[in-house]
């Protein structure tokens, strides 16, 4: 459902999601291990 909304919103959502993905990839490893 969230993906559908992202597609409907247009360019704003995809860009935000892209930034989030990049942030997660750049996030420290210990952060992931913490979860």
Summarize the structure.
83% of the residues lie in helices and 0% in strands. The protein has 35 residues and is mainly alpha-helical.
Features:
35 residues; mainly alpha; 3 helices; 0% strand
How does the SSE layout of this entry go?
Elements (H helix, E strand, L loop, with lengths): L1 H8 L2 H15 L2 H6 L1
Overview of this protein structure:
By secondary structure, this protein is mostly helical. The protein has three helices and no strands. The chain has helices at residues 2-9, 12-26, 29-34. The radius of gyration is 13 Å and the shape is rod-shaped. It starts with a helix and ends with a helix. Residues 1-35 are annotated as: Disordered. Residues 1-14 have a biased composition (Polar residues).
Give helix % range: over 70%
Shape: rod-shaped
Question: What's the total helix number?
Answer: 3
- Major pleated sheet: none
H/E topology pattern? HHH
Mean pLDDT over all positions: 66
Oligomer: single chain
Low-confidence stretches: none
Q: Structural class of the secondary elements?
A: mainly alpha
Distance between the termini: 25 Å
Biased composition (Polar residues): 1-14
Region (Disordered): 1-35
